[in-house]
Design goal:
The complex is a heterodimer of chains A (about 475) and B (about 400). By secondary structure, chain A is mainly alpha-helical. Helix content of chain A is about 55%, strand content about 5%. In chain A, α1 packs parallel to α3 and α7 packs across α12. Chain B is of the alpha/beta class. The longest helix of chain B has 19 residues. In chain B, about 50% of the residues are buried. The chains are: A mainly alpha (about 475), B alpha/beta (about 400).
Amino acid sequence: MPASNTSDSSERAGYIAGNHFGLGLRPGELRYINSDPRGWLKSQLDNIENLPASLQALPDSSFALIADGNWRRERRDLMQKGGQAAVMEAQRDKNLTDNKIFQQHTSLRLQAAVDTRQPFAERLLRFWSNHFTVAVSGGTKAVLRRIALPYENEAIRSKLAGDFESLLLSVEQHPAMLIYLDNDSSFGPNSPAGRRRERGLNENLAREVLELHTLGVDGGYKQADVTSLAKMITGWTVMRQERGDRGRNPGKLGEFRFLASAHEPGQHSLLGKDYRANGAGQGEAALVDVAHHPATARYVATRLVSHFVADTPPVSAIDKIAMVFMESEGSLPAIHAALVDLDEIWQAEYRKLKTPEELIISTLRAMNLNTQNSGSTQVFNSMSNTLSVFNHLPFTATSPAGWPDEAEHWGSPDALVKRIEWVNQITQNFGNRVDAEQLAAEILPENESLQLALRRAESRSQGMALLLASPDFQWR
Amino acid sequence: MAKHKQSSIDHQRRRLVSSLAAAPALGLFGSLPGLSFAATDGGEQRFVLVILRGAMDGLAAVAPYGDSELAGLRGSLLTPQSELLKLDSFFGLHPAFENLHEMYQSSQAVICHAVASPYRERSHFDAQNVLEIGLEQPDQTESGWLNRCVPLLGKSGGSDGNSPAMAIGQAVPDVLKGESEVASWAPAVMPEPSISTMQKLQQLYAEDAFLGTRLEQALMANQVVGRNGMTANLRQGQSFGVLVDAAAAFLADASGPSIAVLESNGWDTHANQGASQGQLAGKFCELDWGLARLKSDLEKTWNNTAVLVVTEFGRTAAVNGTQGTDHGTGGAALLLGGSVKGGRIQGQWPGLASGNLYQGRDLAPTTDMRSLFKTVLRDYLQLPQVNIESELFPNSADAPFIANLV
């Protein structure tokens, strides 16, 4: 690996801080960064859990879950009164509303990223949200359309100043995750409810906890460990409707609840360690141990380094982050700060192709758009369309593994042409107000061939198209 | 041509203006509760309006090779007479129009020449607006003539989210805007960057091993050697083809719309327009291919389909200083369909001698475009003449109905 010789005060470091760690420089932003790029990044870790302004009016997931419970009850009533046709009609309206809300959420989430003055913090949130992916679907999971974004803030953002253990627990006990990975329909086969209803285990969540959230697929666990963890987290469910058994199964409507009657009785073992029966505490104890497992440290470090350094993550960097993970007992601020201190990142040969979402965010930031601009709402709203054209609409990843992070995935010839077409389209609409040459100097390191191309552009909007489609802007 | 109904409809950016906004489109028209059209048989008339935006060069598309002035005016833009697809002893189609020529020969195409809307200035925007609102001056109304004709079609429409008229393209064009609700569908195709932008990007990408290779691959895949050795940009062809497929799929559905509007952009050939080959030839190829595809997609209803292809104005008779042509006046229009009275040229030829040119530079118009619209509406869609003259094209006495057109 190349040795570190990068001076933080060098001009290049500011660009790396803003474009590689951040979400793309805004014109003028470099001023605040250049004196101390690493300091600028680390200072963002201090209030990483603060909710961005655009998301402050967002209702809690419990609110949406309560509404969802009410809707199910109404639908049953409607079935009795108006029959199938009435239900279908109402269902259609409900789906339209859900879609509209989901679209609003997409727009708000984008606004948060475009507006933010803490782009490194916002990138970290997105990394973890992708690590702990939930994706929307229909049927009994339709409520995910309304709670996916609240989930990201409630279970993830609020925990980023703490440690991995509390992040893990808050994610795995959040209604969105319990619904998404079916734990709300998992029953201990020997539990009272399981026996009565002849229902059994659903291993979905337990498997993804081990495979994707903690140890990683090569983390040394076996099928028996998956089954065992699945048993220990039976009864971890969501209080979706008022029930008569509140006394025995306390919990708030619309929130996590431990349903003792669905919990598999007895002691179970995970990775060779036994966990005694202790209600919800049994699964919690298991997750705490998994959270501190060396395999988890290594797996999480690999994912972080792949995201922050390169598609083929340098082993030296993985080693460093895994070590910080273990030594700090999973302190997220310590781990995040260690990323900033990875010499590898400050070397220009490491780069990542922007994902479509990153391309859109950095484009809007480069164009200095923010929620204060008149007409910006319309732009943000139209971007949810763009995100789906690029198959990168938030919370629609096709598997619990989340979105891939590699250039190979996002940079196919056809996708590349689509990017160019999009950039061309947006600059035709907005690009004639901006001088591309001047903007390039504010957001990208010097590059003679790019400067030459921009100087020779036929029009302002062509200059902007060339700038935004240029390799320098497509990579971060 | 194969029928790609499903794949073309299954694009992400389709949308239906109205309460149907989020419902999966086609095929559900008849099955969604509360949504149904009056029963239609396969015999109902379909009308497709194709608007070529940017002003198609009528003299290049339908060359009056019998006019002795043509060669002198056109210079390097002239397609050699031997390559033209002859229509008669005076007119010949550009060699790209193989399928159109075939339709002409089987009496399924009328070629109208020296056509213009009542607009006599040379702004694209105003000219398109005049063409679409059906009045003599731009911006005199917010509604398009096809929108105003929706209530006359005698089909249910509007409140239930369905409409007998549909826009196929990125936006609802002026001709369909107005009080009556219309449906619309848009493909997931973004406008194509200009050739110059792509060339400049290729240079920038050449320095990037990862992106450079992929861009080259993409461009290779998009270049196909077309018929007659002409190079057509497949992606461009595809994007019009996608619209055509979509229009055909919607029109073929018994409970779908009976009127569709398609648009094709990129006809503004001010520079390097080419002759038998080149930029404009590629556009002709795309159009010809699209029309053929529409015919084959609509095989079963082709006998009940009329397709009218129009553009906002023609281009200058003479070549300009950059091997192209500038905004003009009289142009060409096409009317196709299984039951049009085709195989002939419609309109009077004004001649290209300088004294005959409009303002000494453009082909002089002898047919008012509204005559084509009015005649198709009355004789083909069977709309009452009184409504056509009072509501759709008021003050159009100068644009008489044309006998024996459809």
